[in-house]
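User: Design a sequence. Structure:
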């Protein structure tokens, strides 16, 4: 049976674990906020279940306990954010979005290249709070294919767009039919993979679950994720390759079969740049015509969970949390 656990207990646990690793308080709080946000909308693969992997990286020295970023100014409206590989990816992204916002406040528009975040929409939080329009395009590992090439050469390249509203508009999605993290979680739990989620390469006869597991291990020659909208989705993902990969120069060692690494491009627009002073009111009026829209549905779900004060976890994640509660002697 699924297990409800108090949100406050999870926060207490997370704080204890990260304090034990001497993680900076603000950094710890940012990571926990994103993890809990994912759990509240049942995005289990990218929530608190990432805590053991985070502890491994902190223990091995792969990640430091403080945020390490360097801002490289390029032009009055553009900059690059440099950080160690794999280092607090979402928090580096939030920092980059904050820098893009600062440029937009000064110049009307801000363009920032930064390492690829793990959860794209989350990094636009400072942009939403300021009431600006923001965009993040990501270029990631080669996960997608439609049979046009013998090996994957295109990522499922998530993108996110935010705009002011009540509540704000926030689209956040990958360009594959299903999220890779969702499919990987299903494969690891030995659950069924939705039909049509995976495209097998010619002469490949392995199961969809095995394809997902091989993708996670960096094997891009067995099969790939199916893009949304067929060739149109693939074309859009290729466009993200240009914006977030080629244009930014990538950041890390290119995956096999790709000419650049894994990067992202953050764009922030100040409404004053176009003399649109009542943009929030106009967007809110437009969005009111819909029974639901990106950003609103997730907000309603979060508020419902917050009212109960509990998150109902799948058994495997609940067991992980129970073990950590025991280790850190925390009652829940």
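Assistant: Done.
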């Amino acid at each position: 049976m699924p297990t409800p656990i108090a949100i406050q207990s999870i926060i207490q646990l997370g704080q204890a674990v990260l304090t034990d690793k001497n993680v900076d308080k603000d950094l710890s709080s940012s990571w926990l906020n994103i993890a809990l946000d994912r759990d509240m909308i049942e995005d289990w693969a990218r929530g608190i279940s990432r805590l053991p992997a985070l502890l491994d990286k902190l223990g091995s020295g792969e990640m430091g306990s403080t945020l390490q970023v360097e801002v490289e100014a390029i032009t009055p409206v553009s900059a690059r954010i440099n950080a160690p590989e794999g280092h607090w990816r979402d928090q580096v992204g939030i920092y980059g979005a904050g820098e893009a916002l600062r440029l937009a406040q000064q110049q009307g528009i801000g363009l920032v290249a930064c390492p690829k975040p793990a959860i794209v929409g989350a990094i636009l939080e400072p942009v939403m709070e300021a009431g600006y329009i923001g965009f993040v395009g990501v270029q990631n590992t080669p996960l997608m294919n439609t049979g046009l090439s013998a090996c994957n050469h295109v990522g499922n390249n998530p993108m996110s767009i935010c705009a002011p509203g009540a509540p704000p508009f926030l689209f956040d999605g990958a360009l594959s039919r299903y999220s890779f993290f969702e499919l990987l979680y299903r494969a690891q739990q030995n659950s069924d993979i939705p039909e049509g989620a995976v495209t097998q390469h010619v002469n490949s006869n392995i199961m969809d679950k095995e394809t997902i597991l091989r993708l996670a291990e960096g094997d891009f020659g067995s099969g790939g994720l199916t893009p949304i909208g067929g060739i149109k989705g693939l074309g859009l993902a290729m466009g993200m390759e240009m914006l977030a990969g080629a244009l930014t120069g990538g950041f890390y060692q290119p995956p096999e079969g790709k000419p650049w690494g894994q990067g992202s491009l953050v764009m922030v627009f100040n409404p004053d740049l176009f003399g649109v002073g009542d943009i929030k009111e106009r967007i809110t009026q437009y969005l009111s015509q819909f029974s639901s829209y990106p950003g609103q549905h997730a907000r309603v779900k979060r508020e419902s969970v917050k009212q109960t004060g509990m998150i109902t976890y799948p058994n495997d994640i609940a067991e992980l949390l129970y073990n950590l509660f025991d280790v850190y002697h925390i009652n829940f």
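The radius of gyration is 20 Å. The first strand starts at residue 3 and ends at 6.
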